[in-house]
Amino acid sequence: MTQIVSFAGSGSGLGALHCAMLDAFSDYIVPLQPDSDTFKAALSARNFDPEASFVAVEDDDVIGFWNVATRGTKRYLIGSGTRIGHRGRGLASRLGMAAIHAAENVGIESFWLEVIKGNTGAERLYRKLGFDVARTLDCYRLDHPAPDRSSCKLSDFSTVADVIQRYSTWEPAWQNTTETISGLQLTSFLHEEGGAIIGAGGLVHQIAASEPSALEDLLAAAATAGSLTLVNVDSADSALCSLLQALGAHRFIVQSEMRLSLPNVS
Ligand SMILES: CC(C)(COP(=O)(O)OP(=O)(O)OC[C@H]1O[C@@H](n2cnc3c(N)ncnc32)[C@H](O)[C@@H]1OP(=O)(O)O)[C@@H](O)C(=O)NCCC(=O)NCCS
């Protein structure tokens, strides 16, 4: 018999969750097969909450999961999946409902997730559970031949995070928030005209500036890995999106950020 239980109460370990994740994502829309350490680090950086997360267990095996994070009164779906041989039996629906009820019961105000445009099965499921699209997030890859730091200087993370907050017109998605990235090995640059970028190993986590020309300089300063990847740029940021397109960046994924507002049941 299949049981839907919280991860904390399931008696399962992160190893079993990792195995289930690898199987559920083996036919995913983009390749996603992290090794065990990367999987655990990603959960931890995003504030994985074992009490808020739910698994489907059959014969001591995890066959489906909703991995959920908590920050204050917000919850976030880090990842959900059902092992290939167990799909279409309503497991993801039951896991989602269990996670939403658990959130309601502890006074959570909103539940967030991202879904890749084109993952129609998952998007239909989230809509069925009551989620609506809050905004569109774009992912870009930009080839950058050589770094140019002439108008930028290296700076510390907290200074740069403050500058980005001053210039940014939108909140970073969960995986790029200051809280998620603060444990990473980051490289941060300040622009002399106002603006900043925070990156790590060719990934740009946050960027904002007063002028498009400063954005361009910041991208050039951060271009140490030959190419830059920007995951989850708010598509409403027309200055950054137009610049990236003008620089020839390739938009390789479009995501919908979805939100479920929960009633206050207390
Ligand atoms: C998406 C996924 C989790 C659904 O798991 P599942 O246990 O088969 O889902 P359910 O049986 O509960 O179906 C729930 C709903 O999802 C939708 N759905 C699921 N698979 C679908 C498909 N292939 N095509 C269309 N709709 C689909 C349907 O709305 C379905 O409800 P319905 O049967 O009442 O119409 C599973 O296909 C999966 O693991 N995919 C790969 C990983 C992934 O994409 N995760 C989501 C990342 S955002």
Automatic annotation (TrEMBL):
- Give the InterPro entries listed for this entry: Acyl_CoA_acyltransferase, GNAT_dom, YpeA/RimI_acetyltransf
Keywords per UniProt: Acyltransferase, Transferase
Q: Where is the N-acetyltransferase domain?
A: 12-155
Q: What Gene3D superfamilies does this protein's entry cite?
A: 3.40.630.30
Tell me the superkingdom of the source.
Answer: Bacteria
Instruction: Please verify whether the record's keywords include Transferase.
Output: yes
The entry lists its GO molecular-function terms as:
acyltransferase activity, transferring groups other than amino-acyl groups
Q: Name one Pfam family in it.
A: Acetyltransf_1
State the protein's name: N-acetyltransferase domain-containing protein
State the organism named in the record: Phaeobacter gallaeciensis
